[in-house]
Amino acid sequence: MPSRAIDRNAKEAAGPPPSDFGPARAAAPILAVNNIEVVYDHVILVLKGVSLQVTGGDIVALLGANGAGKSTTLKAISNLLSAERGEVTKGSIVFDDSEVHALTPNELVRRGCIQVMEGRHCFAHLSVEENLLTGAFTRRDGHAAVGRDLDLVYSYFPRLKERRSSTAGYISGGEQQMCAIGRALMSRPKMILLDEPSMGLAPQLVEEIFSIVGDLNTRERVSFLLAEQNTRMALKYARYGYVLENGRVVLDGKAETLSENQDVKEFYLGIAEGKRKSFREGKYYRRRKRWLA
Questions:
Q1: Between vectors from CA 204 to CA 118 and to CA 201, what angle results, nearest 5°?
Q2: Which of 26, 214, 226, 228 has the most CB within a 10 Å radius?
Q3: pTM of the full structure
Q4: What is the pLDDT of residues 218-236, one digit of tens each?
């Protein structure tokens, strides 16, 4: 058989050459939570088989009403449950290709995952700058690198630079939230778990803080898992979302899809049949959520 025929047959067996116009290969998740259950006091089952993923460089929203299990999910990831007599009894949590369930919280911070707690939790007796510097306590790359990151934080939060010497306990709630996020940035994270950043803040400050979160994600490539009751604001900046209810994920999808979902509109955005609903109207919850049917 001529060599040209052999070459042609070999090419046909190998199949067509790879094309640049095919579907893009899915990016590997930086965080994968796989079917976890969380129990408090060895009795109270709070999370019931929660699974979610965050792709590197994304903002993912974790939505739900108060008590749905959002904060517990974040604490399970950051290994802070033991302080509240809770534990993960089933499933696995993988961050940056390594299972992290057995790590201490500070070891997880060194690997690049840090949580900003609900309610800000600044050190009230320290100055703003001292609070920011506490975020770098796990780092070992020298004062010069820490100083550069401090300047970076001030570039994103210029109001903190103005208040750098003020006692953190006496600054406004919005400034304290900025301080808490800036403190997390000082650890040079790959991912930030952000718990209820809008809680107790004026709408204008909420918009400002979410805008900065979006900038950090775009420019610094920091991934965010955002637990938030303000569904409208969360879906505005997130690319993907999970709806949590009674310790279970009942719905998930792209942010645009969730924004148009009729159940999400009615039960989390207060919109039904194309118009805003009033809480004064009777039988507001007369229709069951479709995921409960």
A1: 25
A2: 226
A3: 0.83
A4: 999 999 999 998 899 999 9
